[in-house]
Design goal:
Helix content: 25-40%
CATH superfamily of the largest domain: Type I PLP-dependent aspartate aminotransferase-like (Major domain)
Strand content: 15-25%
Distance between the termini: 53 Å
CATH topology of the largest domain: Aspartate Aminotransferase, domain 2
CATH architecture of the largest domain: 3-Layer(aba) Sandwich
Number of domains: 2
Shape: globular
Strand order of the largest sheet: 1-7-6-5-4-2-3
Order of helices and strands: HHHEHEHEHEHEHEEHHHEHEHEEEH
Length: 393
Amino acid sequence: MKDSLSYILNHLGEERSKYFNAVSPPIIQTSNFVFDSFDQFRNAIANEDRSHIYTRGNNPTVQILRKKVAALEKTEDALAFASGSGAIAAAVMTFIRSGDHVVCVDNPYSWTKTLFNMVLPKFGVSVTYVDGRSLSNIESAIRPQTKILYLESPNTATFALQDLNECAKLAKKHEIMTMIDNSYCSPIYQNPSDYGIDLVLHSGTKYLNGHSDVVCGFVCGSHAHVKQIFQFATMTMGNILGPAEAALVLRGLRTLDLRVHRSHMTTLEVVAYLKSHPAVDSVLYPWDESFAQFELAKQQMKGAGGLFSIILDTDNREKIEQFCEALNTFLFAVSWGGHESLILPFCSLLDIPGHPDPEVPVNLIRFYIGLEDADYLIQDLKQAFEATFPSLS
């Protein structure tokens, strides 16, 4: 009963008798905590990863959230950070040193790639990118100095998957730590720890919060690994989630299961419509039978949520822009996981000074399906196609 989703989302970690039997946990908005005795003070300092001394380390409101996210990912512990990229950087930098090597799958989240390409080389750490759809590609990239295998399954543009079970086995054989960005699936649709992955990372800004009003990140793993990250990255770098933001994410978690399922079911209808339209060359969605890795998706995922991409049947950037501009309901934005439906045309990221071009087709448009009705979204797509490709409508 205590490992059920309903219990985790609604009750785990919430000791209501300690705060006036309030239904919702209070925001403990304090920087500092006091002690009644010398011995209490000394014991707390000796166990700072489990004590409330200073909110840079632990805060009661944040701790409730940590317990819930860890339980959702079926791990022993979790840490909360001020952003998803902060969580990723904290996890990676805790477990590497100068001279080490990282194997990372192709096309990871852009700021993960910035960490690997711009930050780590300054400290003598090298990175090799591989097509993670093939285990042999990963194995060929491993060196004696390899310390981390970094996964993103599915990734958030073309949704390439890795076989998590086989990746974990390979990493253990070579004594390599495995990390995965699980933001795409959320804990509702995938639990990488079930397959032996060491650390599970999240941009909690997406589905976990779900209201587009908090930026946050999480690292989930064993007590031992989390303690190492706490001592190195949390306490030293101070990239923490505040109690007010933690309270908002707790609010968001109440409806996590409902929101993710709603988005998934609506997406299935929208994808079916798009696949039938002559202006669409193809749809990339792991939960669609036409997806190249559909069988693997069914094997290690329970669903795919609301994020997918289409490839329009034109590489004319003006036409692509015209189609996107014609949409009224879908908003131009990065991120996903909120109530609002979004589009990210990757050609909008081309030729920007100081920014590398994305490694995806020019005619790829990423969609996120929020909580609107399917018919409402399809009508908007229909009128945009008619305005842009009248001969095909």
